[in-house]
Amino acid sequence: MATVPGDHQDEQTSREQLLESGQSVSAVVRTTLGPNGHDKMLVGEKGKVLVTNDGARILERIEISDPVGRAVVRAAGSQRQAVGDGTTTTVVLTGALLSRAGSLLDEGVHPTTVIDGFHEATGVARDRLRETATAVDRSDRALLEDIAKTTVTGRWDEANTDRFAELTVSGLQAVGFDRSKLGVEAYPGGELGDSELVDGLLIDMETSPATVDDLGSGNRTVPEPRVAMVNSEITIEKPDAVASVTLERSEQAERLRSHEQSVREEAVATITGADVDVLFCQKSIDDTVRNSLFRAGVLAVERTRQDQFDAICRATGARAVQSIDQLIPEAVGHAGSVRRRTVGQTETLQVVDCPLETQRTLLLRGGTPHVAEETERIVEECSETVQLALRDGVVVPGGGASAMALSREVAHHASGVADRTHLVIEAFTDALEQIPGVLATNAGRDPIDTLTTLRSRHAAGDRTAGIAGTGEVVGMIDAGIVEPHAVFDRSLVIALEAASMILRIDEVVSTPSKETEQGDATRARGHGGPDSGGYPWAISH
Ligand code: ADP
Ligand code: MG
Predict the structure, then answer these.
(1) Which of 153, 445, 472, 477 most suits a substitution to test ligand 1, by most atoms within 8 Å of the C-beta?
(2) Fewest C-beta in 10 Å: which of 300, 379, 481, 509?
């Protein structure tokens, strides 16, 4: 694709190709946008199949060889990383900007003018988006649920996504919106509808089968337990002197046995001396020690997961010790109760009513491991989006309503701009209309008719009119289709950055593969923002 300097014709072709590559990524994912997004079947190298309508997941997995296409995928990646949602929107918007830019360049508008105009328009759009956003706080339970539902619409059947969204908000609310106090544990088996919000922490005992036996049958409960936390393995170390003992020599064997016995007794004495009822160990516990503890009335749980181990420490006030001999009474924590709970095939311990932190766990159920995993993902996304909305403090109508409103408002601004920038700003407003346009198309509607209806609703003063799941034009806030302001705001910023970056390139020159792989940022003389720095190809001007 290298060009002879000054060869205008070739440069044109080259730039056109660049814009087209940018748009082709958008063409792949646009049909997945919104509640009626179609599924794509992704077939991996080993024939592994994934069916999804999640634009972000598709982009993560498809292989794109051309560097401009990859730049768009990277833009989607930064969107996801920054706000966890809105990836498809960002890509569709980037594609729309590039397509409008292509027409402007054909009309002889200079790329710099296009970039500057897009910048100006984005600035106006962002200001308006912020000014017109609706405030949200922790007490707006219904609104928070709407935010959660909107973010996961189309991912599962409606009844279930709604239920997960509600459960997530209940869970977050119960822990004062501190995600670190809300555990999410998915167990295959059972019905999706059996998922529930449970009190306290749920500790998986799958890795600790022996302890399950200790618990006996039924729902044993340890009331008001004193809780000890041990960081390292609980084992009986053999003293050097008897390390290489030949066991035929009964005297030595006897010495070893009595040594072990005394070490064990000492450990058990230290634990019972500290009045411990339940002991969680992050590593394994020697069987004989565990049995002795069990006989002494201490429930010893081994291989507790690190995050849960830390959560128990925080909630019970226990101080983790490195070894049993460090277990002083002050290191012991408290809980309201520890009880056994069988979830499907899995044995768990529920640690409830801890004095220092109110913990809750979302216990997710689903038929297969795949379903359990997917539900966990949905809950994580709901939680992330709700927290984002609360951090940002404002939400905006979804379903293309905000894009339409901004399109009108930016167009209004354009009418006051005289020079060629006027054309560019108008092109920007066109690009924004692509969002409701694609939503209408995906809902099986004629986009031109639907956009006409939508425009007239906005012209009549309804800023919240957007495209419902049915494809009809309705008020989005009333319909409960709302998003964190930060999500669409980020889409505007990242689409602008990606489109500008691509518009600044006039040629792609391949470099030897070694450098290409290293993605040497110093060779990429692009001017992308901090999100787009360091593209793995060289750019000439
Ligand atoms: P993205 O990757 O951009 O988040 P999605 O496929 O999740 O793409 O679609 C998001 C778009 O769908 C947003 O414009 C959002 O407002 C809209 N949307 C979500 N739920 C609904 C719904 N129930 N009705 C109409 N539009 C919806
Ligand atoms: Mg989404």
Answers:
(1) 153
(2) 509
